[in-house]
Specification:
about 70 residues; mainly alpha; elongated; transmembrane; membrane; transmembrane helix
Length: about 70
C-alpha cells in the first residue's frame, strides 16, 4: 500500500508542477471519464433500487403529458 501512496504522491507533485494548460488537460483527461463512470454507476444503483421498490418505469409507461419532458 505504501508503494501506491508513494506513486500517487509523485504523480500529484508532477501534475502540480506543470504549467496551467497542461495541468488542466491532464486533469480533464482523467476526470471526464471518471465522472461519466460515477454517474453511470449512480444511475444503475438508482435503477436497481427503484426496481426493488416496485417503482421501475419503462419508456412506454411514461405519460409525456403535453409533450414537455
Amino acid at each position: 500500500m505504501e508503494r501506491i501512496a508513494d506513486w500517487w504522491d509523485g504523480f500529484e507533485m508532477w501534475v502540480a508542477g506543470l504549467p496551467f494548460i497542461p495541468q488542466f488537460l491532464v486533469v480533464l483527461v482523467g476526470m471526464v471519464p471518471i465522472s461519466f463512470a460515477i454517474a453511470y454507476l449512480i444511475d444503475r444503483a438508482l435503477h436497481v433500487a427503484g426496481a426493488a421498490l416496485g417503482r421501475n418505469e419503462t419508456d412506454g409507461d411514461r405519460d409525456p403529458g403535453n409533450g414537455v419532458f
